[in-house]
Write a structure and sequence with these properties.
The complex is a heterodimer. Chain A is elongated and about 50 Å long. Chain A has helices at residues 6-26, 30-54, 61-91. By secondary structure, chain A is mostly helical. In chain A, helix 1 packs antiparallel against helix 2 (30-54) and helix 2 (30-54) packs antiparallel against helix 3. Chain A contains three helices and no strands. Helices cover 74% and strands 0% of the residues of chain A. Chain A has one domain (6-91): Helix Hairpins, CATH 1.10.287. Chain B is mainly alpha-helical. Chain B has two domains: 1-82, Four Helix Bundle (Hemerythrin (Met), subunit A); 126-172, no CATH class. Chain B is built from six helices and no strands. Chain B has helices spanning 3-24, 28-48, 52-77, 89-112, 127-134, 143-164. In chain B, helix 1 (3-24) runs antiparallel to helix 2 (28-48) and helix 2 (28-48) runs antiparallel to helix 3. The longest helix of chain B has 26 residues, at 52-77. Chain B is extended and about 65 Å long. Chain B starts with a helix and ends in an 8-residue tail after the last helix. Classes of the chains: A mainly alpha, B mainly alpha. The interface between A and B is large, with 70 and 85 residues.
């Protein structure tokens, strides 16, 4: 095993990103799709912090980007869960196959 | 092999394995718990990189906030002990194909690209530096995005309340 560096962290974040993409493509339940999106956003945050640490340590831009991404992800999750609960109230289901009122 | 290397590999195994289990398990509550462990592993990676502030933010916002929100919404919308429906085989196959080809392509780019490190002296991500730059008005200050994000959070909060508000039953 090698001493971990930038490439190792990039490998982890890439793997996590595509795990999230896989979950987003296969899951049909809105809450589990939201969880996959959280994984994707987190992998991007790892990237920002790793680039800040290893390539541009004379600035803190990557750290600020990840802080703003976390804030926006929190807002997004809150709005998404409000919409999901409202959808469950009117349709008694949160499966994407059943939520097709806006389709046509 | 030093202790730091071992800790790095343990954290990455925790993150990736619980991430995979979180998107493949058929019990939705377990998916939320595995997501929790994956987020804790990511916070550990931030600690490993010595970005303590962002690790603390990760634990407070994700592990303490978003996961609890997700678990609450599972309780509100799901019948207990019910398995998620079986996936369509064809869809799983093609999603695996898409994920693996994207993963391979990105990895190829990462391996081929040579990253150039800057030669300037580094600043430490201490709380003092972060705070000064976050609210700084001069160059490299982030006070405008900070204010914009505050407005966005306020709007999202009001939006959540309005969306989730139970509409009054109309009395006849």
């Amino acid at each position: 095993m090698m001493e971990p560096g930038l490439n190792h962290i990039l490998f982890i974040s890439t793997a996590l990103f595509f795990i999230g993409i896989f979950g987003f493509l296969t899951r049909r339940n809105l809450i589990t799709m939201l969880m996959s999106i959280e994984l994707v956003l987190n992998s991007v945050n790892i990237n920002f912090v790793a680039f800040n640490k290893y390539l541009w340590p004379h600035k803190l831009d990557g750290l600020f980007f990840s802080i703003f991404v976390i804030a926006i992800a929190a807002a997004e999750a809150a709005v998404a869960i409000a919409i999901i609960i409202n959808l469950y109230r009117s349709h008694q289901s949160i499966d994407v196959e059943n939520a097709e009122d806006l389709k046509f | 092999m030093s202790g730091s290397t071992i800790i790095f590999y343990l954290l990455s195994i925790l993150t990736l394995v619980s991430g995979i289990l979180s998107v493949t398990t058929r019990k939705i509550f377990r998916a939320a718990i595995f997501l929790l462990f994956s987020l804790i592993g990511i916070a550990g990676l931030y600690f490993w990189m010595q970005y303590e502030f962002i690790a603390a933010v990760q634990i407070v916002v994700y592990v303490g906030g978003i996961t609890v929100l997700i678990i609450f919404s599972i309780f509100l919308t799901q019948q207990a002990g019910e398995l998620l429906p079986q996936q369509n085989r064809k869809r799983v196959l093609f999603s695996l194909l898409a994920a693996f080809s994207g993963f391979g392509l990105t990895l190829l780019q990462i391996i081929q690209h040579s990253f150039n490190k800057t030669l300037e002296s580094s600043i430490l991500p201490t709380m003092e530096n972060i705070g000064n730059q976050m609210l700084g008005l001069e160059d490299n200050g982030f006070s405008l995005p900070f204010e914009v994000v505050s407005i966005l959070l306020l709007a999202a909060m009001i939006g959540c309340i309005v969306i989730a508000l139970r509409s009054k039953p109309t009395t006849v």
